[in-house]
Structures are given as structure tokens and as C-alpha cells.
Write a structure and sequence with these properties.
The structure is a single chain. By secondary structure, the chain is mainly beta. The protein is built from two helices and eight strands; from the N terminus they run ββββββαβαβ. Strand 1 and strand 2 form a beta hairpin. The longest helix is centred in the last third of the chain and has 10 residues.
Length: 118
């Protein structure tokens, strides 16, 4: 992980390196997936070379800095991510239905309160 100055996703350019949490280079940024008019960062598409392009969700991006992008996931997981499909993921869930107990169980076990719509 580089210790360069952090930058915003809005100035992230293609071609900068993307590193997994294990320090292995996954590839380079192909492009940013965002809704800039609403200031929403969805993630990045990574050109991996031999594995094609992979979509990395914003939640899996640890940091964006001058030297590149660091991920919260290791390189093996990153190579196994889906190819870009043209749309941002949609999640279902009702915040009012999430109990404090289940929220903390999810936090402690690495789970998630939201479920991806298929």
C-alpha cells in the first residue's frame, strides 16, 4: 500500500495501478463508475490483463491516492470478481426492519444488513 496523498474518485485516471490487500498488483484502472451529478462513487473497472476486466464495488476500495488504488480484498478475490455488466448493483432492504441485534451480529461476523437483488 502506497502512502501517497489521497485523491477524490473524480480525478482518478485510467492506467494507474490497482493493488489487492495482499500487495499483489491486480491490474490498472480502466475507468471509474460513478454518478458525478449526485456525487456517488459506484466503483472501478480494472483491466487485469490475462483475466479481462473486473468490476470492483466502491465498498471493496480501501483508498484512492496519487500512486493508485488499494483494495480491501486480496488479488485472488479481485480476479474472481464479475466482469462489468453495464449497471450498478441494486440492494434490497428496509432500514426500519434491521434490528440492532442483527446489525451487531452482522458486524461481528462480517455479514451485511443489505442483500443484493438478483
Amino acid at each position: 500500500m502506497d502512502q501517497d496523498s489521497p485523491i477524490a474518485y473524480t480525478v482518478l485516471e485510467g492506467g494507474v495501478p490497482v493493488l489487492g490487500s495482499d500487495g499483489v498488483r491486480v491490474g490498472t484502472v480502466h475507468h471509474v463508475v460513478a454518478a458525478p451529478e449526485k456525487d456517488i462513487f459506484h466503483g472501478i473497472v480494472v483491466a487485469t490483463g490475462g483475466f479481462g476486466r473486473r468490476f470492483v464495488e466502491a465498498a471493496d476500495v480501501a483508498s484512492i491516492h496519487e500512486g493508485g488504488v488499494d483494495l480491501n480484498i486480496d488479488s485472488r478475490t479481485a480476479f474472481g470478481l464479475p466482469e462489468p455488466s453495464g449497471g450498478a448493483p441494486v440492494f434490497k432492504g428496509d432500514p426500519a426492519s434491521i434490528s440492532t441485534w442483527s446489525h451487531w451480529v452482522h458486524r461481528l461476523t462480517g455479514g451485511n444488513d443489505w442483500k443484493r437483488r438478483s
